[in-house]
Amino acid sequence: MIVQEQEAIDKAVEAITGDMGALWITLAAILVFFMQAGFTLLEIGFTRSKNSGNIIMKNVMDLAVGSVMFWAVGYAIMYGSDLVGGGFFRSSPSDQGYFFFSADDWYNLFFQTVFCATAATIVSGAIAGRTKFSTYLIFSAILTTLIYPISGSWYWPFDDDAWLNTAGFVDFAGSSVVHAVGGAAALVAAILVGPRIGKYVDGKAQAIPGHNMAFGALGVFILWLGWFGFNGGSQLAWGGDDTIGATSVIINTNLAAAIGAIAALFFTWARYGKADISMTLNGALAGLVGITAGCGSVNAWGALAIGLVCGIVVVLSIEFIDKKLKIDDPVGAISVHGVCGFLGTVLIGLFALDGGLFYGGSGKLLWVQTYGSLAYIVWAAVASFVVLFILKKTIGLRVSEQEEVDGLDMHEHGVEAYPEHISQDK
């Protein structure tokens, strides 16, 4: 009788713990969903007002198109039971994966869907102000249906069939799986679309200031908040040790963001003689992106170190890409997500408590982290190039010169985001 009672208690506790975990993942997914508002405000604030409506539409459609396509196809490619192409991606019978209808796993679908939408949205900021809306919609659909799910299947199913998981690769919440993939796609897109009119004059980069830094700052605060769900929810459970794990991840996330902002602030203050606002905001985001891979593998000191490095590197990277490579990225998305996504992933090889070089590791983890992150970058860059090159040669990537000068809001959507004509950048 005592044994039976104990078994009943254990089952009840297990059920409650499972429900608490599902609730935590759902709440975390809602926070990540809200990050879409942060990306929208950040991109609007860092660019010209005449394109604000177009940016709103792109971010809304990233979420809308991504939600449908990931539900219909992407989730099965990423988490399917059957391996295709020697494990290059996955698949599932239609009643198990495509057009997802697994009621006991809805919360995981929702959580992974908002991650997928985040990867797509990264591209939007890098090509703001000069890209055809119709072309962008097609690329966003392909990224959320194929490009992101295929690369995600290499690691996040957490089984022996995922080749990077088997190799010992670590990316807790997606510095590479989400951010480096989005950053690499953004780099290719920015190169193929080309710079905005007036960005480079006689070979020299010209500043094109954003129209509303308050929007940009509010966007960063929303993203910072949402990141607690992005990283904390990636614990994928709640209760007991998982509660400690999830909250430690949140602390590491906050510390990295804070020190990233501080590092960018003082670095630009020393470099430019002024405390640069946009670079400080991007410093916070760089810390967030950088710690996303290792937030469950490092201690607070490791989180501070990763955030500090990323907060400085993002400033140098934005300058290098803008002035040396002459690639026009209005919001710094390539540097924040691509460069810092790669850097944060690699730094796990130094700061991980288990296997990090600074904690007695042999260097194997550092090597795995490096080639694993590069695999994501190369895949996203090559796949994006193929898709965007075809689009460029068929329907075109870029609006006309006159449409760009007038603003995409009027030509692409027939309305201005600021009807009172408060814009100073026409």
UniProtKB/TrEMBL annotation:
Its chief place of residence is membrane
Q: Name one Pfam family in it.
A: Ammonium_transp
Keywords, A to Z? Ammonia transport, Membrane, Transmembrane, Transmembrane helix, Transport
Give the residue spans that cross the bilayer: 21-42, 63-89, 109-129, 136-156, 176-193, 213-230, 250-270, 277-294, 300-321, 333-353, 373-391
Location within or outside the cell: Cell membrane; Membrane
Q: Which SUPFAM superfamilies match?
A: Ammonium transporter
> By its UniProt entry, which InterPro entries does this protein fall under?
Ammonium/urea_transptr (IPR029020), Ammonium_transpt (IPR001905), Ammonium_transpt_CS (IPR018047), NH4_transpt_AmtB-like_dom (IPR024041), RhesusRHD (IPR002229)
**Membrane topology per the record?**
Multi-pass membrane protein
**Every Ammonium transporter AmtB-like domain range:** 23-418
Q: Which family does it belong to?
A: Belongs to the ammonia transporter channel (TC 1.A.11.2) family.
Q: Which NCBIfam families match?
A: amt
Name of the featured protein: Ammonium transporter
